[in-house]
Amino acid sequence: MPILEVSGLCAGYGASDVLHDVSFSVEQGGITTILGANGAGKTTVLRALCGMLRSARGSIVLDQVQVNGKATESIVRLGVGHVPDGRGTFMNLTTEENLRVGAMTRRDKAAVAADFERVFSYFPRLKERRHQQAGTLSGGEQQMLAISRALMLNPRLLLLDEPSFGLAPLVVQDIFRIMRTINEVQKVAILLVEQNASLALDLASTAYILETGRVVMSGPAHELREAESVRKSYLGY
Amino acid sequence: MEAFLHQVFSGLANGAIYASLALALVMIYQSTHHINFAQGELAMFSTYLAWAMINAGLPYWAAFGLTVVASFFIGLIIERAIVRRVADAPVLTVVVVFIALLVILNSVTGWIFTYTIKVFPSPFPEEPLFGPYISSHEAGVVGVSIFVLVTLFLFFRFTPLGLAMRATAENAVSSRLAGIRTGWMLALGWGIAAAIGAIAGMMVAPIVYLDPNMMSGILLYAIAAALMGGIDSPLGAVIGGLTVGVLENIMGAYVVGTELKLTVALVVIIGVLIFKPTGLFGRSFVTRV
Ligand SMILES: Nc1ncnc2c1ncn2[C@@H]1O[C@H](COP(=O)(O)OP(=O)(O)OP(=O)(O)O)[C@@H](O)[C@H]1O
Ligand SMILES: [Mg+2]
Questions:
Q1: Cβ–Cβ of A93/B174 closer than 8 Å?
Q2: Does A133 lie in the same domain as A99?
C-alpha cells in the first residue's frame, strides 16, 4: 500500500504545462527518488504535490486521501514535510524559532521537546547556533535547518528538493546518512529529488527518471543504476 | 523653560498616539508590503462606535473594551472580505481599494453621525496629577500606549501565535509548508492593527475633538513616523512616532507656528523618502548574499 500515489499529473506555470501525465508512487516507509536534468520539472512535481500550483490536474492520493485541490497548509497537516527548493529559511528568526515554526501544528509538547533533541543530535551545529539569526547561517547550515524544520512537523512523508545542493561532499554524505536514519528509525517515507544521481540511487529503493516533464524510465533503484542510458546521462561513466 | 518642557511632554503624548498608529501601519506593511491608507479612518470609525456606546450610557472603560473588540473583528472582516481579494493585484489596484475604503468609512460615518464636531470624554481626571508640565490625559495617553506596546511585544515575542504571525509576514510560502494557515494570520494582523488604531483614536479624540476628519492629519504624522523609523520596523515606528510628536510640537511652538505643523510631517515624509528610504531602523537584519 503506497503512502503516496500520483497518476496522470499535469501542471505548469501560466499557459503551458511543465509536467505531462506524470505517475509514480512512494511506498509506506520507503524511499523513492526522482532524477532529472535541470529544468526537467522535479521541483514542479514537489510543488504540485503540496498544492502550490493551481494548474495541477490529475490524481494525488496521500494515504488513501485524495489531496488534489486542497490548500498547502491542509496537505502539510496530513503529515507532509517539504524541504523546498532554496531552503525557505525564515531569515529574521533565530534557528530555534525556525524549528518552533516547523512544530507549529503540533500540540504534543513532550514529543516536540524530544524532537528538538533529536534534530540537534542529527545536526549538533544547529544546537550551537540555536539563538543565532537564521539569515546568518551558512548555506549548509541552512540546509540542515530546512531538513530539521520539516522533521519538527513529525511527518509521515518527507519531500526533499535537492538536499545536497551547494554542500561540501562530506556534509552531503552526512545528510544522506541522516536521511537513512530518519527513514529506518522514524519510519518516515521519503521522496527525494536529486542531481546527485549516484547517492540518490544508493539511498532509494525505487527511482524515476524525469525528462522535460515526462517519466521516461522507472524501476528498482539498483536496476536503473545498471541501465546504460542512466549511467551515461546521470552517472557520467 | 517651563513652556518648553510642556511642549516636550505634550509632544510625547501626541507622539505615543502617532507611534501606535504607525505600529498598525507597520504590521500590515510587513505582511503585505502596502501602506493601509484607510487605517486612520478605521480608527475614526471605531472612536464613533465608542462615542455611541458612551452616549447610550455605557461606562467609559466598558465602551473602550467593547470598541477594541469590535474593531478587531471589523479589521478581520475587511481583510477576509475585501483585502485578500486584491492580494495579488497590481499595487495601484490595492492603493485604490485602500483610498476607496478611506472615503467610504469617512462618508458613512458622516452620514450616520453627521459632521458636527463632538466632544469625546477622557477617562483621566481633569486636574494634573503628574506635575505642571503634563496634563493627566496626556500622562494617561502615554501610559495606555506603553501598555499597548508592551502587550504587543510580549505577544509577538513569546506566544506561538505571535511567532506564526511573524513567520507569515516574513515568508508566507515557508509558513504554509509548516502548516500555518497564513490567510488567517493576515486577517488576524488586520484585526490587531484595527484594534490598536481604535485605542489611538479614543486617546486622541479628547484632544482634537471627534469629527469624521479627525484622523486625516494624524494618519499623516503616523506615516511620517513609520517612514522615519523604517516602514518595516516596529521599534522604528515607536521611536519615529515619539520623535515626530515632539518635533511637531517644538517646531509648531517656536519655529513655524501652529498653522504649519502638518507641513512638518510632510517635510519629514519627503525628506526620508529622498535621503534615507530605509528609515532609521529599516531592514537592519544581516543577510548572507
Ligand atoms: N515560478 C516559475 N514560473 C515559470 N516557470 C517556471 C517556474 N518555476 C519553474 N519554471 C519552469 O518550469 C520548468 C521546470 O522547472 P523545475 O524547477 O521544476 O525544474 P527542476 O527539474 O527542479 O530543475 P533544477 O534541477 O534546475 O532544480 C523549467 O522550464 C522552468 O523554467
Ligand atoms: Mg529544482
A1: no
A2: yes
